[in-house]
Design a protein that fits this description.
The complex is a heterodimer of chains A (133) and B (107).
Chain A lengths: L7 H18 L7 H18 L12 H7 L8 H6 L24 H6 L20
Helix pairs in contact in A: 1-2
Chain B lengths: L4 E2 L2 H9 L5 E6 L4 H16 L5 E6 L4 H6 L7 E6 L2 E7 L4 H9 L3
The chains are: A mainly alpha (133), B alpha/beta (107).
Chain lengths: 133, 107
């Protein structure tokens, strides 16, 4: 990633997006503000670099090819929309844990963090219909 | 006291594969939130296991070869190497106790 500071315009865009998405999904920012700040900067930097807020918590051998392949890792990523799981710790519980309740049991998130229940099950998961049966 | 050491693609072979002691490799990136969250824990672990475990950090944006070679996707990915081979992979910002248990299983 280009490690220059992202543009103010992209930072404002992503901050606004996150504010709305926390509210929409009933999730919270991480209690360690540095975690949230890093991710928002990473998303904004990708907007500057690629035109899309590609998740900064993955390694992509080729970022442009990744975007051409799929929007899977464009924030909010498929895992967030289907399972309300944010491995980037941007959309988490008030304690700072990623929600794992809806993940398949063999998913790495479930294996690493155990069962983390959703404190606001009436919100989010707008693509839950795409969860594998 | 041990400290995590930043290494490059060019150093991976000598610092990790050919290491005489087990190595914990932190694949991270500058703007990855959970990488920031786990970083202080890795500093503590490097001190706690000084002499028994080497802790190194690989910035995946600057060192794409190593990240590609080991199929890194989610970051942080913490890979444990022993005798030149990967023996465990931990993904995410886990608490210190859980990381220590994983490490202990390989020492």
């Amino acid at each position: 990633m280009n490690e220059q500071q992202p543009s103010e315009k992209s930072m404002q865009r992503m901050q606004k997006y996150c504010d709305k998405y926390w509210e929409k999904t009933g999730t919270s920012p991480h209690p360690n503000a540095e975690v949230t700040d890093s991710v928002v900067k990473g998303l904004a930097a990708h907007v500057d670099e690629l035109g899309r807020p590609l998740c900064p918590c993955n390694f992509y051998p080729d970022k442009k090819a990744e975007l051409e392949r799929s929007r899977e890792w464009v924030c909010a990523c498929d895992e967030m929309k289907i399972w309300k799981y944010c491995h980037c710790l941007l959309f988490v519980t008030p304690e700072g844990l990623p929600i794992t309740e809806y993940l398949p049991e063999d998913h790495e998130g479930r294996q690493m963090y155990g069962l983390v229940e959703d404190p606001t099950p009436d919100k989010g998961r707008e693509a839950r219909h795409r969860a594998p049966a | 006291m041990g400290q995590p050491t930043a290494i490059t693609d060019d150093q991976f072979e000598s610092e990790v594969i050919n290491s005489n002691t087990p190595v914990l490799v932190d694949f991270w990136a500058e703007w990855c939130g959970p990488c920031k969250a786990v970083a202080p824990t890795l500093v503590e672990l490097a001190g706690d296991y000084d002499g028994r475990l080497k802790v190194v950090k690989v910035d995946v944006d600057e060192n794409r070869e190593a990240a590609t070679r080991f199929g890194i996707r989610s970051i942080p990915s913490l890979l444990i190497f022993k005798d030149g081979a990967e023996v465990d992979r931990i993904i995410g910002a886990l608490p210190k106790q859980q990381l220590a248990e994983k490490i202990d299983g390989h020492l």
